[in-house]
Amino acid sequence: MSLAVGPGQRPGTGKISEAVSRVEAELGRLWDTPDEATGQAKVRASMMNLVVVSSPAETEALETSTDDLTQTHPGRVFLLSVDGRIEPWDLRASISAVCRADGGSLLCSDRVEIAFGAMVVARAGSVVSALALPEVPTIVESGAGAPPSLVDALAKGADRLIVDSAHTSWKRVAELARATPAALADRNFVRAYTWRDLVARFFDDAPRATRAIRRVEITRTGAGRQEPAAQLIGWLASRLGWTFESAQRARWPGGSVELALRDDVRTDVGAGEVTGVRIETELDGRSLVATCARTEAPRIVRWAMEGARTASHDYPLGFRDETWVLIKTIDAAVSDRTYRETALAAADFCGHLGAG
Amino acid sequence: MATIPPPENPLRLGMAEELSVDPCVLVIFGASGDLTGRKLVPGIYMLAKNRMLPSAFSLVGFARRPMSDADFRAKMREATDKFSRQKPVDGTVWDDLAAGTFYVQGAFDEAAAYQRLREKLEEIDRTRGTRGGRTFYLAVPADSVRPIVDHLKEAGLVPPPTNDGKPYARVIVEKPFGTDLASARELNRDLLQKLDERQIFRIDHYLGKETVQNLLVFRFGNTIFEPLWSRQHVDHVQITVAEEIGVEGRGKFYEKIGITRDIVQNHALQVLTLVAMEPPSSWDADAVRDEKVKVLRTLRPIRGREVLERTVRGQYAAGIVRGDRVPGYREEPDVAKDSRTETYVAMRMQLESWRWGGVPFYLRSGKRLAKRLAEVVLHFKSLPHGLFRGATGATDEPNALIVRIQPDEGISLRFATKVPGGGIAVRDVAMDFRYGSAFGSSTPEAYERLILDAMRGEATLFTRADEVEAQWGFIDAILEGWKEHEAPVARYEAGSWGPAEADRLLEPGDTWRKP
Fold first, then answer.
1. Which of A173, B29, B296, B384 lies 20 to 30 Å from B267 when distance is taken between CA atoms?
2. Left, alpha or beta for B220 (phi > 0: left; psi -120 to 50: alpha)?
3. What is the reported pTM?
């Protein structure tokens, strides 16, 4: 079903609340009515409210991806956008159910799509609060092309806020981190997990070598929308207590670390991706050089140490689809604090770099 | 206890949710067997798909049958395509897993094969960075366990655990853990001569089921249920583990085992311990298992003539199950025509403890029953005063809390409610929580969870030596009592809920549930 507030309505007339009431009523009817095809009653499955903010152009793709997600993380999905094609004081809403057979029952989640006119964006938080399922967390995702004003309006009521630093600047991520007490997660932080794991592995048997790092060099392909090295450098800084003097030097109470970024011109790797990490440090007075770098084989990283320790292995980077990535951003709460600190440090680094 | 990530490495903080397993090789003995293809490798694939395995992970199959690495990979891919709980299999994930999958051919009693295995594992350490971490899964008949462990020890593949837990070597042992108390003790003693208890993971796949684990969360993660969980409020408890299937061509095996050894000694008693245990001081493996063992020790033995009053054994006769006519047990292949092996058992148990004194625990398990089902039901005490007695529909049926272990995992609370409308009409309703409704279809298979736990060194959901022996101690007394007093073997029709004789175990007014 689809609902719209008629054109020309103004704030304070109560028309938005009427539209909300109509959506509520339609949702009630949706659940009270047996499935048309089977005649079975629908059973609601609900773990969360998932509110995805994006541009209208993304909505169709999001319908598919959120349907995939609700197979394992059922709940009420809101797809929100600001649509310049509708009147500024209008709101357009449609609802639908996504069902799957489970044993003898029909398990369903519902989806509410709302396009806001430019002048009613600030009311989005109130609209979502009125329509959200009670007793389950509200997770807000800032998707591609999400208008910042709409994300800001929703962030206050969120229990968890998901960003994607592949297309959101670190400055903006840091703004959100400071503005909301909600837990913050990042799809791109999940995607980059293997790199963090491989770097951490250098120090599993020699944690004291983290205190002697002299130089970090990150190689990456260009033309990404954000600086691809910022996340790894921000993560290292947040874990090891570094602060940035400049984009080339970090300092910690025991010394300083040289930072270097190198361009990789290879074309077999996507734009804006890290392709190698080289760390120079010391262990027991001897030099230790740790590197991991993508090989020519697809998705393989060679991990190696030379000097005080010697080892070399190849690891698959692995491929993870975006539904899996989103699930991790929803579920992986243990890394929330680490990520928040990483985001703030990455934003600081980008500030020195003159990047966003 | 998990050994990685080492807390000293500051870069590992906040990574635990994504990587919780040390680099390791999982070696499956019995790699050409049914369990490996049906459960283990599909489970490992799901772990890989959900990125629960370390990047430095390798799988090695070990079996008698000659096979190349490529043959083994193809065979396991075929099995995963067929049995994975998520289809289709993701080719990229599988290719990564297959690249680290190898096969070693050898007989379980062939010393040279263990040297070949050792060389292969050392090569994998060098090429894949698995750092000497080893988990050996013995998916083999019970009589092969000891020779395999002996050879692993002789080949230096299971060194004693170090204080920092690295590198580690662990051994997962499938049930049965012996066939009686004496054999279980002997097996434990032999294993403990070669291995440390911390290295032995006795697997009971029932403990990997979400609802079984949820019993602990339900009881000790909420404040509202535990106060009701005692003799003050509970009238009796019923535990049912029912199967629709018969012996499925395993008549020869079943003749020697019977359902008491096959199901009650392990699965059913494990469920009982989780229902009845006191709160552990922590989620630490030994803290939980200490409390479970205490339950088994408070279980009043059923011995001698008591078996005639407190137990009933039975055997299915021909009948109709799910609409199909099925033969009786004695008509099954490889079953003696005068067999006295039990395919059904029911018992009334008493726990001699402050919490449960005087509360009967009724347990029943059988083959060819009306439906496949495992559940625990707490029947609460009756109303002290029937205020609504005589109201339309009022049954005075006490409240019941039903924990469904399979199928339709979930929890229901049955209570009385007023029917809308004038007057007072009362009807029982069920407040129903279903795992599928709340969490979608993501519930992992028991083997996935348990393999992962073993590789992490997390032993909470594995059975400790003293638990196994306490379980056998209780069961042995019943088996001896049956033998000594020639306990009758009641007949029940296949497709029913068991023999009528089981009703006499119940207190007056109680009935077996027919869910």
1. B29
2. alpha
3. 0.77
From B506, B181, B173, select the one nearest B346 (Cα to Cα): B506
Q: A315 — contact with chain B (CB < 8 Å)?
A: yes
Using a CB-CB distance cutoff of 8 angstroms, which residues of chain A are in contact with residue B434? 43
Q: Measure CA of the first residue to CA of the last residue in chain B; give whole Å.
A: 39
B267 a catalytic residue: yes
Quick check: helix, strand or coil at residue B129? coil
**B441/A71 CB distance under 8 A:** yes
Contact A48, A138 (CB under 8 A): yes
For helices B285-298 and B269-276, the axis angle rounded to 10 degrees is 100
Q: Whole-angstrom Cα distance, residue B114 to residue B111?
A: 5
Structure confidence at residue A324 as a pLDDT band (50, 70, 90): confident
Task: Write the single-letter amino acid at B347.
Answer: M
Q: Find out whether B190 and B182 touch, Cβ atoms under 8 Å.
A: no
Residue range A257-273: average pLDDT? 90
Position of tokens 């709340």?
A: B438
The DSSP result for B172-219, as a single string, is: EEESP--SSHHHHHHHHHHHHHHS-GGGEEEE-GGGGSHHHHHHHHHH
Stretch (H or E) spanning B169: strand B169-174
Which pair of tokens denotes residue A15? 């028309």
Question: β-strand B169-174 against B134-138: which pairing, if any?
Answer: parallel
User: Which residue, A228, A234, A137, A129, is CA-closest to A177?
Assistant: A234
How many CA atoms lie less than 13 Å away from B297 in the CB half-sphere?
A: 9
Question: How many C-beta atoms surround the C-beta of residue B284 within 10 A?
Answer: 14
